[in-house]
Design brief:
Length: 172
């Protein structure tokens, strides 16, 4: 199987489902945020604070370009904002089967409340920020994805099994 790329809003289950999928299939797990943190030697929140969001998005694009040639047979979990750029959406789609893990606002809020590591959610009313970002990103996720999986009410194993079943039907 080629690469499986998991996209979606923060808290949708990309990392948890991705790790489970990789273990189950024997594929390699790649978290793009973790790669960027390792390469930059600083946490994402620190990158945002020191250099700003456009710089971070440049790092994401650069990583995706490199992954075109150095990443195969992997389950790839990407940051929630990676598909915001059109170039990134193109690169994601060329990297493998892109699966949008979708969750409701209530599910997302339950999963991200109290998590101070997400710079896009810091400051102000959390619910309003989540709602605004979800609305802004919905069409972009839809544009990037080959498949969409609703994760509300599914545990990690159920979500992973659904991703695997649907991805096997998809020819990319």
């Amino acid at each position: 199987m080629q690469n499986l790329i998991l996209i979606g809003f923060m808290g949708a289950g990309k990392t948890s489902v991705g790790k489970y999928l990789a273990h189950k299939t024997g594929m390699t797990f790649v978290d793009t945020d973790e790669r960027i943190v390792a390469e930059q030697g600083m946490e994402i929140a620190a990158i945002f604070e020191k250099y700003g969001e456009p710089y971070f998005r440049d790092l994401e694009t650069d990583l995706l370009e490199r992954m075109q040639t150095d990443t195969e047979n992997s389950v790839i979990s990407v940051g929630g904002g990676m598909p915001v750029r059109e170039r990134n959406r193109e690169l994601l789609r060329s990297l493998g089967c892109v699966v949008w893990l979708l969750a409701s606002k209530a599910t997302i809020l339950g999963r991200v409340s109290g998590d101070g590591t997400r710079p896009m959610l810091s400051g102000g009313d959390l619910e309003a920020r989540v709602e605004r970002l979800m609305r802004e990103r919905e069409a972009l996720y839809r544009d990037a994805a080959h498949l969409m999986i609703q994760t509300d009410g599914l545990n990690i194993a159920e979500a992973a099994d659904t991703v695997l079943r649907e991805a096997r039907k998809f020819r990319y």
